[in-house]
Inverse folding.
């Protein structure tokens, strides 16, 4: 099958390679001409723009959008839509908000163009292991594009999960679960690392990956990271980003009256990681000093002695 790929970042580039390895013919475009040149050397047909990409595809066309969520995705869909015909299919494989995917699908439907939202998981390992694909949209368009999904996914690693929006909705919840799993592993390994018993966290990660109930691919990646970076992780700054899907999962839980404390707190912990100095913690420290005379640390490392309460003691 022939497919146009818009976006040759970490995911799009590897997806293009995997599809070509499975015998599909790829037409590729990216704003980065160097990336286009590299993928052309691997066998893809290069495109100089979205109009050129559409022109090099044989009807019935299928175009996969693999660019950052938000404005880049919106712009790419609107621009490529202008060069497609009724019956053609646009697939959004990025981390778009499912509500935006429903809106875009309705917009394309007015032009007679099909839209599939494909929640895509697998990261940089997808080239080797395959990508897990959760696809929403019209069943007939899904059936037309199924050879693409079958090539990208491992065995039993792709499925049509519902109408427009369902693919990105399921990926949103998938990533919310990921937040909670990551936080649980992180907290457990920090307890081990700070223990006075001298644990080797790499050893334990490797051990747990053999028969333990907490074994997982994520734990395998932790084992790999500890082996590469060392258990102290001295070269890594503890600043954790979020792609937005954790926030959307929490908001959806609120809207549906579903208690989701683990995912919610995992999201908030990522915000904590971005603070070099917490103003909130300063407020707590100074109030505790005021009501209970508890010691506070000053800039430069000095510790101010506790204030004595009127009865001669300290409180709190």
């Amino acid at each position: 099958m022939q497919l146009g790929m818009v976006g040759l970042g970490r995911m799009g580039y590897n997806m293009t390679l995997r599809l070509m390895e499975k015998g599909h013919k790829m037409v590729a475009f990216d704003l980065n001409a160097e990336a286009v040149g590299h993928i052309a050397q691997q066998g893809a047909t290069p495109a100089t723009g979205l109009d050129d990409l559409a022109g090099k595809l044989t009807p019935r066309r299928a175009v996969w959008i693999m660019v950052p969520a938000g404005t880049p995705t919106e712009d790419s869909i609107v621009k490529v839509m202008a060069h497609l015909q009724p019956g053609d299919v646009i697939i959004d494989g990025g981390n778009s908000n499912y509500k935006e995917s429903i809106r875009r699908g309705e917009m394309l439907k007015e032009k007679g163009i099909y839209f599939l939202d494909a929640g895509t998981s697998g990261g940089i390992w997808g080239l080797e292991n395959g990508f897990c694909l959760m696809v929403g949209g019209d069943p007939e368009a899904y059936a037309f594009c199924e050879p693409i999904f079958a090539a990208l996914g491992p065995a039993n690693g792709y499925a049509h999960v519902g109408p427009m929006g369902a693919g990105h909705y399921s990926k949103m919840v998938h990533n919310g679960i990921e937040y909670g799993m990551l936080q649980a592993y992180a907290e457990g390994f920090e307890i081990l690392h700070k223990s006075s018993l001298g644990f080797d966290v790499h050893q334990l990660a490797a051990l747990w990956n053999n028969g333990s109930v907490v074994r997982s691919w994520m734990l395998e990646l932790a084992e790999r990271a500890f082996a590469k970076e060392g258990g102290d992780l001295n070269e890594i700054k503890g600043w954790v980003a979020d792609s937005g899907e954790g926030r959307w999962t929490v908001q959806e839980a609120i809207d549906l009256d579903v208690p989701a404390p683990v995912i919610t707190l995992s999201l908030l912990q990522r915000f904590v990681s971005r603070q070099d100095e917490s103003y909130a913690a300063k407020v707590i420290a100074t109030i505790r000093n005021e009501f209970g005379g508890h010691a506070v640390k000053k800039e430069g490392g000095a510790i101010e002695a506790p204030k004595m309460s009127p009865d001669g003691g300290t409180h709190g």
